[in-house]
Amino acid sequence: MSHYHYKRVLLKISGESLMGTQSYGIDAEMVASVASEVKAVAEQGIEICLVIGGGNIFRGVSGAAAGMERATGDYMGMLATVMNALAMQNALEGMDTPVRVMSALPISAVCEPYIRRRAMRHMQKGRIVIFAAGTGNPFFTTDTAAALRASEMNCDALLKGTRVDGVYDSDPEKNPDAKRFDRLDYMDVLAQDLKVMDASAISLARENNIPILVFSIEQAGGFSKVLKHDGKFTIVDTKK
Questions:
Q1: What is the number of structural domains in the chain?
Q2: Residue 3 located in a structural domain
Q3: For an engineered disulfide with 81, which of 54, 110, 122, 178 has Cβ 3.0 to 4.6 Å away?
Q4: Helices then strands (H, E): number in the chain?
Q5: Is residue 119 within 8 Å of residue 49, measured between CB atoms?
């Protein structure tokens, strides 16, 4: 454990990360790849919880959602995160890894309701906990849900697994000259409007002094490396 910098972490991954090369939906191979990364870290004694976005599924129904009121669209997005959480649970269980899905919206037929103390107990027993349905409220993103759950679970860090290896001043997939940052202050992110997470998530992490580490979830072994402060990543915290 000495080479790992954190004991309890929350991993936030976007729904798009589970699409693989598809235009929308769930790519079973990508889900299995992420699950194997999580399993490898959990076996080292790290307590892990996850928040998964729903963009991969909601993108497929966004045409139907056009013209809907915002709250209705947000609830549809929450249900998409439950579907992703169940897919990840299935992959982890297939690897003999204990896992629980806890939903902010009560859906007792398929997952547990979110109860903070129960979630803490699951993690203490070595189970991976996947938080689904965001905060359970419309007008809040899964980024904010991740910062909220990381705060509630007393996590040592919030890790955001993306398709790129850190935070850039513009989209590196569109701009080859984009500048990459190794370290940022929370206020730098807010002032420069860098698209790390939304402002409320950054503010919540700052208030609770939870560092945010942004790395590529598609790089083999990336999750384990970033916990050791190895490999490429950007850390957002309070500059000393």
A1: 1
A2: no
A3: 54
A4: 8, 11
A5: yes
Instruction: Name the strand (E) or helix (H) holding 167.
Output: strand 167-168
Helix ranges, 125-209 (H): 142-152, 186-191, 199-207
Element (H, E) at 173: none
Beta bridge partners of 49: 10, 129
Query: Computed from CA positions of residues 101, 145, 196, 3, in that sequence, does the dihedral angle turn out positive or negative?
Result: negative
Q: What predicted TM-score, i.e. pTM, was given to this entire model?
A: 0.94
CATH code: domain of residue 138 = 3.40.1160.10
Can you give the residue range of the structural domain that contains 53? 8-237
pLDDT in single tens digits along all 240 residues of the chain: 458 999 999 999 999 899 988 888 999 999 999 999 999 999 999 999 999 999 898 765 555 566 788 888 889 999 999 999 999 999 999 999 999 999 999 999 999 999 999 999 999 999 999 999 999 999 999 999 999 999 999 999 999 999 899 999 988 889 989 999 999 999 999 999 998 999 999 999 999 999 999 999 988 999 999 999 998 999 999 976
